[in-house]
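[step 3/7] inverse_fold.run input=structure_tokens len=981
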């Protein structure tokens, strides 16, 4: 019995729930953010079937172990959101896009319309169909659909989220933070978190940090803002946005100058000792190599291990592997040497030392705002913790060249970084600098450092070539490669013979060569401009492009409705698939109502984005716990249906019939290679095989009986050093995670980047960039990391706009998905601009007062709050809480619309660029195309007396869509426990 002020909990959250006669409990996987925790959903029978009554964490799930956050427990209110779309909708004839005027139609009519329209496009010019998806978890399916259709115009959300983090680290160490790897806080002694908001890897990170701090670990946060994780750090080091790369370069300067580096690690496991050609020739800046064909490139030609080193013991050149790592050989990390043919060379580490020589802490202080002495102290703390507090684990392992290591070396300094580094136009090189910093400390896949998660590490460069042959875009023909991938050199770019982009978003072109996730933020702008061509149909899934998912929101809304001289829309047909009445739904020609995560099958697959743990691969699923609302259909089912109707080869039998009855059947039976499918667990006809085996018709049932998750624990001998661990490399190849079993040498120096630079310099044969982009490629494709100011600053009057403006997702909300959630709205119903008191007072703005925030691109009016938890040169707010009036079925005049606001109105998706056809170029990282969300500069001023006390700009109120769920009041009454009338 509950006792007032008792220390005893009301109930034990880890106790197994006890179903009653009218209740049941089902397990599935949460999707209130991208963390993908295991949950238990408590159901009670209602008037129309089972209804969700309660959601808690699943203590038997390996990821969150029963921990659940506010978002996860509020999934019940997403299920009954008044904004739920329940039937397909067609824009009324004669109505304008954006007006939100629709008529209900049947699914059969929707499928007929799409099949007819898409069939004509595919039979004539497949690239005129574009499929761009938001924060989905099934890119293996959506990418396959685009490839089978024959269009290169496909991308997911990563280009405007964190592709710099993924690409910058994968091109350097073979893996990345987030799903692909992370900090080993179980064995770390120092944890440094940089540019991470409180929602990234939320519950597992909270669990890990709590355990780490209780064990006496030291936690340092480097961030312009002290919120979320940073609030519990032992030390907060404020930094100016977009300057993290300068800090990393200064830290490298100090570590190398102080000799606080892991020499043995660098010599054996990185390309630090490999010799770089210094002569002015077509191979300048590339690695020297052994021309002996027996030591040449591996079968795919992309990852040769035939480089050279200089042996200090014998004073001669040797092959880097295996002679360069043999006992008795001491590869040089520094110096300048001459090969037998007279070629001048130097180890790449010497070039790194030269690069950071001028990057002193005083240099970085002027850029970052961090005191030079603090930078020195931080470098010393990192280096001494990694090297002088090191320890060894009694775990023997054998490396890729057969050397047996009796123990595993720990380097107990762990890092974590995310979008704060990535979402800048200098983010790729910044992330590279961080990866190199981690590498010189020897922390890569070492106990206490950064650890990979299967199926990573990948090769450097990963063996996934993006589609790049314009001649293969043929009617009714699949592409010969996936639309997305990892280019290794200019010959793999997706460009036409004249050098122009193949893709509508200009991904994999000379503008953004390594754009591994595409440029979703430029699709609408380029399509409306017809640059490089007009498209016919744009299908958007789960991306609010008319609001928080677009830079320059107001202009994008206008472009979605823009017409040509014939009165036709510049984008003729716009299809939006969403579960809710978002701002973008109002602009659709056709609306497809998606299900929620509690109503559908999903897979978090090893072919895509699994939830693996450090000790082995983990994949998971979602299984419907309630039936779909109204006529909602999972988008996955929509794609399977369309693929079957359009007779895609991968989805039909040789006779032309359907190969799969639906998405669950597709997941079980689709095999990209024999024995390899979307799910690893319970394979084989009888479900007794794991990781690899033929399809099991009862695989979904097996997952349902096992908490919707499969976990495989690898032997301890495969837990660490997986870039070079022979046992792991062979194992990963056998299980289909890797095409080859050769080692993954860390790329402190990137010859991939240098190959693009040589083309820009006109020194190499083959493809050449347009003259207008030569200097751009030459500058930013530096094989060594470096810091440069965000590109937007070159076209900004920094005196007129002195402040950096950034956004963060709040811990209680994830994008715009949750800011319409009835429970979570009680935490955040609107947002403020958070400003340091000194900065706000200098501008004459009171705490809680209304102010104007202006950039060169636009202005917003909002409320301001004082906060000493923000560095004085930065202003910030929560992202996506502000809404257009009437969107998401919020009541007219709701706080989200009248008090909430978006910083997106202050950002441009393009910047001036002399020499390009339009005189403009994407406001993105020049290497990867990552959107420069955090580069905008602003000034603030007080609102004038008498101005409306509401945010600006304001939108015309959206009408309710036909069939929208509504009924918020009765929902709240029901879940308060009262009797439904």
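[step 3/7] decode complete -> sequence:
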């Amino acid at each position: 019995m509950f006792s007032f002020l008792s220390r005893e909990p009301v109930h034990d959250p880890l106790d197994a729930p006890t179903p009653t006669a009218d209740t049941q409990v089902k397990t599935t996987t949460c999707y209130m953010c991208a963390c993908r925790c295991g949950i238990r959903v408590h159901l009670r029978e209602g008037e129309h079937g089972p209804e969700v009554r309660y959601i808690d964490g699943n203590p038997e799930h390996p990821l969150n172990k029963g921990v659940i956050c506010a978002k996860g427990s509020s999934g019940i209110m997403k299920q009954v959101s008044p904004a739920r779309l329940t039937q397909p909708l067609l824009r009324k004839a004669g109505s304008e896009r954006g007006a939100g005027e629709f008529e209900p139609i049947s699914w059969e009519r929707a499928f007929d319309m799409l099949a007819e329209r898409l069939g004509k496009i595919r039979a004539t010019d497949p690239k005129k169909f574009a499929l761009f998806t938001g924060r989905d978890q099934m890119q293996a399916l959506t990418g396959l659909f685009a490839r089978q259709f024959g269009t290169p115009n496909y991308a997911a959300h990563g280009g405007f989220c964190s592709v710099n983090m993924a690409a910058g680290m994968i091109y350097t160490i073979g893996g990345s933070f987030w799903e692909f790897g992370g900090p080993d806080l179980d064995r770390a002694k120092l944890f440094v978190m940089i540019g991470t908001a409180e929602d990234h890897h939320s519950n597992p990170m909270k669990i890990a940090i709590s355990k780490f701090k209780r064990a006496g670990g030291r936690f340092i946060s480097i961030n312009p803002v002290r919120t979320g994780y940073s609030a519990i750090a032992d030390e907060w080091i404020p930094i100016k946005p977009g300057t993290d790369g300068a800090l990393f370069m200064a830290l490298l300067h100090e570590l190398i100058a102080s000799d606080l580096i892991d020499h043995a690690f660098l010599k054996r496991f990185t390309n630090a000792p490999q010799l770089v050609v210094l002569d002015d020739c077509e191979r300048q800046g590339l690695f020297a190599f052994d021309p002996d064909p027996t030591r040449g490139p591996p079968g795919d030609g992309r990852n040769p291990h035939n480089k050279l080193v200089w042996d200090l013991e014998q004073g001669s050149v040797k092959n880097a592997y295996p002679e360069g790592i043999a006992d008795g050989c001491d590869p040089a990390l520094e110096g300048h040497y001459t090969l037998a043919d007279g070629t001048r060379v130097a180890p790449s580490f010497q070039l790194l030392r030269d690069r950071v020589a001028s990057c002193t802490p005083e240099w970085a202080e002027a850029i970052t705002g961090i005191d030079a002495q603090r930078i020195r102290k931080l470098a010393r703390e990192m280096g001494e913790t990694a090297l002088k507090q090191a320890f060894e684990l009694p775990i023997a392992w054998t490396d890729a060249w057969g050397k047996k290591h009796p123990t595993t070396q720990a380097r107990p300094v762990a890092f974590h970084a995310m979008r704060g580094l990535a979402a800048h136009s200098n983010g790729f090189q910044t992330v590279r600098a961080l990866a190199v910093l981690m590498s010189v400390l020897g922390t890569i896949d070492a106990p206490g450092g950064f650890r990979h998660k299967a199926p990573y590490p990948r090769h450097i460069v990963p063996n996934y070539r993006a589609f790049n042959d314009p001649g293969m875009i043929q009617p009714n023909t699949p592409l010969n490669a996936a639309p997305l991938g990892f280019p290794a050199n200019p010959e793999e770019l997706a460009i036409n013979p004249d050098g122009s982009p193949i893709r509508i978003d200009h991904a994999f072109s000379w503008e953004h060569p390594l754009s591994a996730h595409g440029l979703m933020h430029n699709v609408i702008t380029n399509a409306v401009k017809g640059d490089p061509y007009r498209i016919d149909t744009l299908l958007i899934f789960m991306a609010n492009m008319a609001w928080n998912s677009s830079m320059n929101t107001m202009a994008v809304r206008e472009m979605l409705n823009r017409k040509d001289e014939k009165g036709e829309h510049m984008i003729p047909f716009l299809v939006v698939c969403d579960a809710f009445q978002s701002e973008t739904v109002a602009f659709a020609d056709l609306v497809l109502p998606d299900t929620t995560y509690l109503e559908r099958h999903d897979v978090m697959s090893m072919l895509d984005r699994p939830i693996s743990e450090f000790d082995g691969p983990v994949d998971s699923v979602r299984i419907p716990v309630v039936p779909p609302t109204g006529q909602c259909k999972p988008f996955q089912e929509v794609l399977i249906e369309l693929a079957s109707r359009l007779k895609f080869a991968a989805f039909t039998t040789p006779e032309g019939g359907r190969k799969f009855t639906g998405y669950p059947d597709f997941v079980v039976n689709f095999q990209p290679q024999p024995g390899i499918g979307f799910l690893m667990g319970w394979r084989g006809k009888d479900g007794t095989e794991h990781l690899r085996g033929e399809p099991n018709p009862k695989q979904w049932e097996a997952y349902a009986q096992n908490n919707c998750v499969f976990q495989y624990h690898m032997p301890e001998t495969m837990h660490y050093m997986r870039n070079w661990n022979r046992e792991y490399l062979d194992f990963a190849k056998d299980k289909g995670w890797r095409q080859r079993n050769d080692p993954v040498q860390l790329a402190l120096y990137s010859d991939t980047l240098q190959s693009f630079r040589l083309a820009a310099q006109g020194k190499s044969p083959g493809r050449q960039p347009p003259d207008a982009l030569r200097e751009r490629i030459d500058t930013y494709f530096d094989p060594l990391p470096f810091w440069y100011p965000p590109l937007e600053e070159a076209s900004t009057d920094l005196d007129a706009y002195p402040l950096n403006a950034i956004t963060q997702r709040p811990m209680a909300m994830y994008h715009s998905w949750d800011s319409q959630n009835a429970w979570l709205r009680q935490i955040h119903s609107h947002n403020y601009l958070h400003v340091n008191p000194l900065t706000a007072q200098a501008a004459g703005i009171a705490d809680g007062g209304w102010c104007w925030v202006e950039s060169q691109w636009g202005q917003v009016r909002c409320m301001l709050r004082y906060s000493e938890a923000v560095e004085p040169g930065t202003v910030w707010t929560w992202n996506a809480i502000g809404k257009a009036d009437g969107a998401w079925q919020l009541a007219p005049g709701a706080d989200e619309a009248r008090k909430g606001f978006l910083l997106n109105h202050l950002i441009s998706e393009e910047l001036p660029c002399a020499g390009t056809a339009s005189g403009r170029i994407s406001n993105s990282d020049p290497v990867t195309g990552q959107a420069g969300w955090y580069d905008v500069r602003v000034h603030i001023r007080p609102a004038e007396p008498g101005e409306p006390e509401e945010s600006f700009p304001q939108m015309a109120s959206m009408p309710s869509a036909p069939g929208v769920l509504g009924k918020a009041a009765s929902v709240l009454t029901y879940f308060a426990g009262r009797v439904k009338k």
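[step 4/7] annotate
Residues 107-124 form the longest helix (18 residues).
The chain is about 25% helix and 15% strand.
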